[in-house]
């Protein structure tokens, strides 16, 4: 019922990266697997990249199977909705394993499942999938370290691997670390068993890693060969949580506009809480419910003498410091000290662990204070303290304008009166509600028989504050081609790829009656074929959005003046979509306007000079990447029909080099053959990304693939008729599959042996 707007309508989850990344990756997976093919290569983003090596592809997650049975929108909707019972049951099981009464376990499970973070991250299921699995993974860890067995090792390791298969490498790493913390803080009941406990902990971590090897090894290969994730500390700290937003945990999402925007308006982010990088929030709410904060605080107060309490509190505070990112030096220290942390980015992604910590703390607080023999007085004290704090916030704003005059106006002097009033009303209303909820917690704790009312209070608070913030959109948005898609697709023969470049400075939400703001923003992205929405129409994007893109390509893209209209067309990009108002005063040389669209104010440019995707060229040899880049970006560009090739040795060149014909036969994106008839020694240029994993043969004999024009591939061919065959296999994929399969086999054998042992 929490997601009734999704459950009882045809509307689908579509906001944010659900549209731009999750849908395209799932659509591509389904299109390939339904034909009995494995998707090794993803050609639709930035001239192509490895699909399994992009950690966020989640290519091995079991929910991908839904796409073989359901339409795309329905499969994604069901995937998203299934995450919430998984989170609920996992959190409840974890708390029950810790001895929390049923009511307290339900309270903690509701807290995590319907926290602002999980509700709002429906705009990016890539991170919802692993986040919802973390409690179950920790439950598996706890059960194994308490009573090791082959079955529990299999379950615990499998759940840890499932976090990795969800698509978030950082969540997998942090879950492993938390699993170690949980294991090592469990009391050891017999002397001399610490070594055994540490060994069991190590065994479980290794098992989880081995089972996840099909995802981990390709990703490791990508890290070593490219620039996935963050390329600097500054970029790593984009989407840092602003310190002001820590108050949302208790008060609620006081920066949001729950109607229309269904989130924090971009102007509020820019003026009041922008840290660096993006002009939107990662999630629009972190609210976990005031009753949860009261119980978590009460649990700490009642257990302050226990060492494990402070270990958990310290771990939570460390997570908070990491989530704050650029506001504190802690994230930078971790970035410098741990090289394996450096590919990770966006500190606010760790918010799921922050709210899980409070949910678990609330459940443990219930056990300590409201369970048999508990200390309800701690809940009363905590409730009164939280109520007093919230009341102070309300009085400060209502009487003295502490929030609006003290922060909003100094940072946003030109703020409209309506915005000031809305922000002020949010703080006063939510602060007063939180104070009332905290006092009700104190009253209910006074009568333990009424404590179950806390569950009702918590559920109502989360529903009222977080329920309006998830976004669902009409399914027709996924099914209606944008203005230029059919024209671009028709320019290429069926089965042949075609590529478009998107050049916009920002995405615009056109004024469309009947559509909410985020729907209009999504329509604006679809209209300009923002990467990777072009997947829906079988159109490749020269622009890049996914993390596995070639670092060589990024270097070319860095020349923002020449890339869109000169370099990209030279690499077989015959179309550019741009905003009409962003067109240069004079059209770039060779470009011509093919079509314009008034509602979205977009223009389609054609580049007739763009060469065929696969063609013969005259090689011009250079020794290094730097030389190739300098030559490609020189004021006088290379002549048409010439390829700048990074050659280990001289290549033969004659007057007729680069002339001849080619015929391409495509079996799949990972396997194609080219019949070449070269008039003289030449290079066969393939204008797709130059990345590890590609191999080539010439007339059946292996030949090297050389880097051409900085970012694409070339194969030297002698004069005459020849056949060039190219194949791709993701580096690390086959060893990863073998490791995972062998680990499963070993676990199966161990379970079989353990079952026979009692009989003998």
UniProtKB/TrEMBL annotation:
InterPro entries: Uncharacterised_YfhO. Keywords: Membrane, Transmembrane, Transmembrane helix. The keyword Hydrolase does not apply. Pfam families: YfhO (PF09586). The chain crosses the membrane at residues 74-95, 101-120, 127-145, 157-185, 197-217, 285-304, 311-330, 350-366, 378-403, 736-754. The keyword Cytoplasm does not apply. This is YfhO family protein. It comes from Corallococcus aberystwythensis.
